[in-house]
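INFO  loader      accepted 1 record
INFO  loader      residues=288
INFO  predictor   begin
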Amino acid sequence: MAAFKAIGNGAGAATRRPRLLIDLWVINIVYSLFIAAPLYALFKADLGHSLLGRNLQPLDFIWLGDFIYKYQDMAPAALAMILVSLLIYTVLYVFLNGGIIGRLLDREGPTTPQAFFADCGRYFWRFARLFLVSLLFYALAFGIILEALSVLFNPVLENARTEWTVFWISDLRTVIALLLLSLVHMVFDYARILVVAGDERRILRALRAAFAFLGTRFFRAWSLYLLIGAGFLGGMAVYFLIGAHLPDSGLFWLGVGILWGQTFIVFRLWTKMIYFAAQAEFYRMSHY
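INFO  predictor   done
INFO  writer      dumping tokens
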């Protein structure tokens, strides 16, 4: 099948670009430290070297309630910090996508930081405009289509005689929401790929080309996208299954837990690269 071949070629392309994966991992670490540093300083100021700090469990609701009550006047500042973090993450997400797709599509080109960040800057404004357009499609998918389906489900929920009916309808709505999310994300992935592959500066033309490309091969493209997603979910299940059996006491096991967490981050970044690489391979196989 074309989807499996594209995934195999995409996984190979992503694996042959370890420098790109390392760069993304380092950027992720730096961003995480930037976000975590203020929280760490606040927790350290609150706990210091107290006996409570040494004996505090990972999720102590009594301490958490006291902490929230003590710093309740800081809620506006905390909200502002969260919003700024989300804004920085969004800009970083759009910025890095240009470098990832640019280096993956340039098969013979280098994966040096200079080449990577050059692509990030080259495609940033085009990808930023695509991101803004994508918000309209997300609003359409979740604000209109999903709401319309919810209206259809309401009579069933109102006449439900058991909790199982409510449970299954709720699960069905979640699945539909995820499928809608995957559809919008897939369309704009191909639009980004077309922007880079054809050095297209007019994003609406790239978006129309993406719709035209998917129009005759929609289910093959969607099956590719969903197969990679299923693989990621399988890997995530393995990660949590193993992580649940790791001891949570002792310095050695603390280090093992940290390394295991970083392994998942690398796996997530590698999956992101496979998404772009496999879809680019599918475009090449179908277009040429």
